[in-house]
Specification:
- InterPro entries: Kinase-like_dom_sf, Prot_kinase_dom, Ser/Thr_Kinases-Pseudokinases.
- GO terms for molecular function: ATP binding; protein serine/threonine kinase activity.
- This is Serine/threonine-protein kinase StkP.
- The structure is a single chain.
- The protein is of the alpha+beta class.
- The chain folds into two domains: about 80 residues, Phosphorylase Kinase, domain 1 (2-Layer Sandwich); about 170 residues, Transferase(Phosphotransferase) domain 1 (Transferase(Phosphotransferase), domain 1), CATH 1.10.510.
- The chain is built from nine helices and eleven strands.
- The protein has a five-stranded antiparallel beta sheet with strand order 1-2-3-5-4, with helices on one face.
- A hairpin with a 3-residue loop joins strand 7 and strand 8.
- Helix 4 runs antiparallel to helix 6, helix 4 packs antiparallel against helix 9 and helix 6 runs antiparallel to helix 8.
- The longest helix is centred in the middle third of the chain and has 17 residues.
- It is globular, with a radius of gyration of 19 Å.
- The mean pLDDT is about 90.
Length: about 270
C-alpha cells in the first residue's frame, strides 16, 4: 500500500543531525509515530540513498522488543522516508551528559538489553556497525532500544572489507580502523565501549583521534571500568574488558556468549 508523507501530521522535530531528519507525528487515527526521512540535499546521492533504504529494509525484517518496529517505508519517492514505532524517551547520550540517575540505578538492565538487541541482529544474519549512545533510545523504565540501521549490512559469518571506513572511530575496533575489516567482532567491541560509558561516564580511550591510539599490536591491555567506577562488579568488568580487547581473538566469539555471561551475574 502506498503511503504519503502527507498522511501524517508533523508535531515536532526531535533530531536534525547527520543525513536524516526525525519528527514526531500522528497518523490518521491520532497515534504517535516517528517519521525518519532523508535530508533533501542527500536524496540525489546514490550511496547515501542506498544506505538509507537498505537500513530501512533490514530494520523492517527485525521483530524484537529492543528494536523499534518499521510501520511503513517509502524508498522510491523524491525524498525517501520511513514511519517507525514511537519511542517515548531520550537517547543514551543525553542520559550520559546529564548524569541521569537511571545509569546508576539500572546499568545491568541497560547493558543486557543492548546485548539482546545485537545478538538478535546477528542471529538474523546482519551486522549493525554503528552501536553508540546516540543510536540507543531509552524507554521507561530502563529498556534500551537500538536504532539507526543505515550502516547495517547482511552478514554470512565471514569478515568483510569496507572500501571506505564507516561508523564512528571511537567505537570501532583496531582491525576496522587499520584494515577496514568488519564482522560480528565489530559490534561486540562497540558494545563494550558503550557498556564502559554506561558504567564510567566516559570512554576507555578519550584520544582526539582514536585511529592513532588503539592498535591491534599494542600490548597494553584496555583500561578497567573499576578504575573509573570502583562500584563496578569485578565479573562485569571482566566481561566488558573482554569485549574491548584490542586483539579480536581475545574477544567473545559471539554476542550470545556475552549474554550467557551477563545472565550469570547476580
Amino acid at each position: 500500500m502506498a503511503v504519503d508523507i502527507n498522511d501524517y501530521t508533523i508535531i515536532r522535530q526531535v533530531y536534525g543531525g547527520g543525513f536524516t531528519r526525525l519528527h514526531v507525528a500522528r497518523d490518521g487515527l491520532g497515534r504517535r509515530v516517528l517519521i525518519r526521512r532523508l535530508r533533501e540535499k542527500y536524496c540525489l546521492n546514490p550511496l547515501i540513498r542506498k544506505r538509507f533504504n537498505r537500513g530501512g529494509s533490514i530494520q523492517a525484517d527485525l521483530r524484537h522488543e529492543n528494536i523499534p518496529r518499521i510501520i511503513h517505508r517509502s524508498p522510491h519517492g523524491r525524498q525517501p522516508f520511513m514511519v517507525v514505532e514511537y519511542i517515548d524517551g531520550g537517547n543514551l547520550r543525553s542520559l550520559l551528559l546529564s548524569h541521569h540517575e537511571l545509569l546508576e540505578a539500572h546499568p545491568l538492565c541497560m547493558i543486557r538489553g543492548i546485548a539482546q538487541a545485537l545478538a538478535y541482529v546477528h542471529a538474523r544474519g546482519y551486522l549493525h556497525l554503528d552501536c553508540k549512545p546516540e543510536n540507543i533510545l531509552i524507554r521507561e523504565p530502563a529498556r534500551p532500544v537500538l536504532i539507526d540501521f543505515d550502516l547495517a549490512h547482511p552478514y554470512r559469518g565471514r569478515p568483510m572489507k569496507q572500501r571506505k571506513l564507516s561508523g564512528t572511530p571511537a567505537y570501532l575496533p583496531p582491525e576496522t580502523l587499520q584494515w577496514h575489516r568488519v564482522d560480528s567482532q565489530t559490534d561486540i567491541y562497540s558494545f563494550g565501549i558503550v557498556c564502559f560509558e554506561i558504567l564510567c561516564g566516559r570512554k576507555p580511550y578519550e584520544a582526539a583521534d582514536t585511529r592513532h591510539e588503539v592498535r591491534i599490536d599494542d600490548a597494553e591491555p584496555p583500561p578497567s571500568a573499576c578504575t573509573y567506577n570502583p562500584d563496578t562488579p569485578p565479573a562485569l568488568d571482566r566481561i566488558i574488558n573482554k569485549c574491548i580487547a584490542k586483539d579480536p581473538r581475545i574477544r567473545y566469539p559471539s554476542m550470545s556468549l556475552v549474554i550467557n555471561h551477563l545472565n550469570a551475574l547476580s
